[in-house]
Each structure stands twice: as C-alpha cells, then as structure tokens.
Design a protein that fits this description.
This protein has 244 residues and is α+β, with helices and mostly antiparallel strands. The chain has helices at residues 18-27, 81-85, 112-116, 139-143, 149-153, 164-173, 211-225, 228-241; strands spanning 4-8, 53-61, 64-72, 91-93, 100-102, 123-124, 132-133, 159-163, 177-179, 189-193. Helix 7 (211-225) runs antiparallel to helix 8. The protein binds iron/sulfur cluster (3 copies).
Amino acid sequence: MASKGLLITPDICIGCRACQVACKEWNQLPASKTKNNGTHENPPDLDANNFNRIRFMEHADQKGVKWLFVSHRCMHCGEPACVQICPVGALIKDKDTGIVYYDKNKCIACHACKSACPFDIPRYDQGGKGKIAKCHLCIDRVRAGLTPACAKTCPTGAIRYGDRDALLKEAKAKKYKIYGETELGGLGVIFALTDSPKIYKLAESPKISESVAFWGSVLRTLVGRGDSTASTFVRYLAHKSTEK
Ligand code: SF4
Ligand code: SF4
Ligand code: SF4
C-alpha cells in the first residue's frame, strides 16, 4: 500500500469545525468543559478528548486583516521522535501507510513522547491512567478502506485524504507553498499554503532533539530489566527528560 496522508489547505477552510465533531463521534470521545475566552476557537488546546482542532488566528498585512483556520493535530512524521523515545513500543509507525498510531495497552504513561515530539502533540488521559491519546489518522477506518472521519466530513476539501504522493503532486500543480514534504523525513500531514508557515503557526525547520535517541536507549534498557522498581524509575526519568 502507498503511504497515505492528509492534505490541509487552510485558505479554503471555513472554520465550521465539522472535522472536530466527526473525529469525536468516530472515536467516541466525550466533550471537554471549556469557557469563552474571547475567541471562537474551541477547544483552546488539544487534549485526550480532542485529537484535532481548528486554530483560529488573525493575520494583518498590507492587504488588510484575514482570518486563518488551521488544523492542529499529529503530523504523522516520516521519522517520528515519539516512536524513537517510547521505551515499550506503544507508539508504532505503520509500515504500509506511514500512519503513527498507538497501543494503549502497552503504554506505561511515562510521558516521554510529549517532550520528544517537535510539535508538542501527545496528550494523556486525565483522571484515568495517564495514557497516550492523539490523532491516529483513523487507522481503523483506513485499514477497512475508508476515509478518515475528519476528511470524509469536511465540506470544502480543506482536509483531503489519499496517497501522499498524489496529494503532493496536486498541491504543487496548484502552485501552493508546501509544508511537510521533507520536514522530519516527510510528514503524513501536508499543508498547502499561500504564505510562510510562521503565519499559520507551523514550526519552521522542526528538529528532533539529539537527546531523544539517548533517552530512548536509557529508558528501554531500564524497562528491559522488567522489575517494578525499574518501571517507577523509568517514569521518574522520563518526566525529568520532559521538563522544559
Ligand atoms: S507529530 Fe509528534 S506525536 Fe505525531 S508522529 Fe510526529 S513526533 Fe509523533
Ligand atoms: S484522522 Fe481520525 S483520529 Fe485523526 S483527526 Fe481525523 S478523525 Fe480524528
Ligand atoms: S471541516 Fe473542513 S472546512 Fe470545516 S473546519 Fe474542518 S477543515 Fe475547515
């Protein structure tokens, strides 16, 4: 199977947030309590019950002020730092599709993946066992030959799903500036932009910290010892390694 991906085109997003609702519905995620903080952006951040949200932002230039609506979610990196650091193999990059998904049963809630991720994406179940939660590109739907729920629902084509190479070709043919073609080994979520990535709050030149490989190796060695003291120490070390 060819690598799969999403093509996000903020300029044709109308901020309807149907993609957020579709994601919650498919993944059976409950509502999070939020409050009005002076913007239509809601929820204010990703969390264990929100794998995808639309950032609302204003941009002013010589032509005037415009509203931008930009999808915020896991980028399904070609070289995922989260997979590199996870000491128990709970995060997995699917060989067929390139999707980065996870196995909650394996997750030991060490939270190392949060600091390793150059996009600060992983979130953790609150009030539960603190296990990983993020967009998994609807790998269950994809394996059944279906389109991810967000892309299936989007009424304008601002989120499109398909073969990554074909999506890239299409965006280039339309003369968009591409974000995600080569970053971090090539992202599974590609953005078609009309301005610089910074305007859309996309990290310019994202990098994996050199300490990720080191911590991944240390944590795996400790987990390999298999005793409960080691597991507690892993959680302590992982939290230390994630302090910013
Ligand atoms: S964006 Fe972060 S969580 Fe998603 S695949 Fe990349 S490193 Fe992992
Ligand atoms: S691909 Fe699936 S899990 Fe990811 S944001 Fe879209 S609907 Fe949610
Ligand atoms: S469903 Fe499409 S148009 Fe609506 S907010 Fe999501 S990406 Fe934008």
